[in-house]
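Customer escalation, tier 2.

The customer says the design service returned an amino acid string that "doesn't look like it belongs to this structure." They asked us to rerun it and document both sides in this ticket. The original structure tokens are below, unchanged.
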């Protein structure tokens, strides 16, 4: 009888909801108001019934389920239906955190993650952060955070789990290509202060490490190039390995430092107003020989800069194929300080190559990755060798 009673209540509840919408439809006329609704009234009926079932039967719902939680959950599902890992709904609190991150400081582990084929992948760790010091690598698949399996979870939810107050601990388990067992990392969160540009001289070569494309990057790079000039550098190695990208306008500013005008990147979207072509301005290092380091952790803005330098014949790429994130996201602000990042276009290099899902192939393929001991960094050593040849060729050209 109890089971029959519950079933009867559920059926009756659905019938009452259906009846109320039908009466409203008849009384007011669907033609005028239905065009303002996000779904047909039949689908809205199903959503209303689903919410009522949750409110009535969900075992942990006796205290009531929050209206905003229902709404945000619906928005996440709506946007996720686009089946694009970079098109996403962002709740107000998370949007605030991401804006802080773009300013160059936040609390966490110091790694960027993305989604590909339903997997949560590390795009790249940030230099000298907990993730980097522990040995987390690009393309590691995060399968567990603390005791929770995160396979198939929303990227935003995983990021929330990874971040937290400084001096708190979190354990992650990853699957790494070539390893038979899962790897476990016990990490301690820190306040991540991101300095995006570092420079050091190797002989007379300016080795410029570019970690990200944040608001401060352009000014930091200009300072580094001024230092290289003051130290009589004869060439520049631009290291963008494990650089996950960032702001498009900053990518153009960075490329402008090395290119003497001309096209940096073009964009093609579904809506014509998002089609665009961006050109280099006046830079500080347009004459010095240049070699660029890239790898599978070089994504988005890194690929824009590397693609422009390669296509324009400004300098060769050394390393491994890049990540292949060549799409443009625009932030659409919503009420209540929420937002939506929507993929509106795809990038093309000056030679009309599509980056998205393909990546860039280096001119000199060398396996490896950044290591503390630069003498053991095979990719960097190759870049130095290539640079010496480029410098010699440049000097010979000037002599001729």
């Amino acid at each position: 009888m109890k089971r029959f009673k519950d079933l009867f209540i559920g059926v009756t509840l659905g019938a009452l909801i259906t009846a109320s919408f039908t009466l409203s439809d008849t009384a007011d006329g669907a033609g005028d108001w239905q065009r303002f609704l996000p779904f047909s009234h039949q689908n809205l009926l199903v959503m209303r019934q689903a919410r009522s079932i949750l409110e009535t039967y969900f075992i942990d719902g006796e205290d009531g389920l929050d209206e905003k939680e229902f709404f945000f959950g619906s928005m996440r599902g709506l946007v996720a239906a686009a089946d694009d890992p970079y098109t996403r709904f962002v709740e107000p609190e998370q949007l605030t955190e991401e804006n802080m991150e773009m300013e160059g400081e936040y609390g966490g582990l110091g790694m960027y993650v993305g989604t590909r084929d339903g997997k949560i992948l590390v795009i790249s760790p940030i230099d000298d952060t907990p993730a980097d010091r522990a040995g987390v690598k690009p393309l590691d698949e995060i399968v567990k955070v603390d005791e929770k399996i995160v396979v198939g979870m929303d990227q935003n939810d995983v990021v929330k789990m990874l971040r937290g107050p400084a001096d708190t601990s979190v354990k992650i388990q990853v699957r790494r290509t070539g390893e038979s067992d899962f790897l476990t990392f016990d990490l301690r969160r820190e306040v991540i202060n991101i300095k995006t540009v570092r420079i050091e001289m190797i002989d007379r070569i300016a080795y410029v490490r570019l970690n990200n494309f944040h608001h401060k990057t352009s000014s930091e790079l200009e300072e580094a190039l001024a230092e290289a000039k003051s130290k009589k550098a004869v060439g520049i190695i631009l290291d963008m390995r494990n650089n996950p990208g960032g702001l498009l306008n900053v990518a153009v500013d960075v490329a402008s430092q090395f290119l003497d005008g001309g096209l940096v990147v073009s964009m093609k979207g579904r809506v014509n107003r998002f089609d665009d072509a961006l050109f280099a301005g006046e830079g500080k290092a347009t004459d010095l020989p240049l070699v660029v380091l890239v790898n599978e952790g070089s994504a988005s803005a890194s690929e824009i800069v590397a693609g422009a330098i390669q296509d324009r014949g400004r300098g060769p790429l050394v390393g491994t194929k890049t990540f292949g994130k060549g799409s443009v996201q625009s932030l659409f602000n919503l009420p209540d300080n929420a937002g939506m990042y929507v993929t509106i276009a795809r990038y093309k290099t000056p030679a009309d190559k599509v980056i998205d899902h393909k990546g860039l192939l280096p001119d000199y393929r060398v396996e490896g990755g950044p290591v503390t001991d630069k003498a053991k960094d095979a990719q960097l050593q190759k870049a130095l060798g290539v640079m010496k040849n480029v410098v010699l060729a440049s000097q010979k050209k000037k002599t001729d």
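Tier 2 assessment: The sequence is consistent with the input. The CA atoms of residues 213 and 247 lie 6 Å apart. Residues 2-28 form the longest helix (27 residues). Sent an explanation to the customer and offered a walkthrough call.
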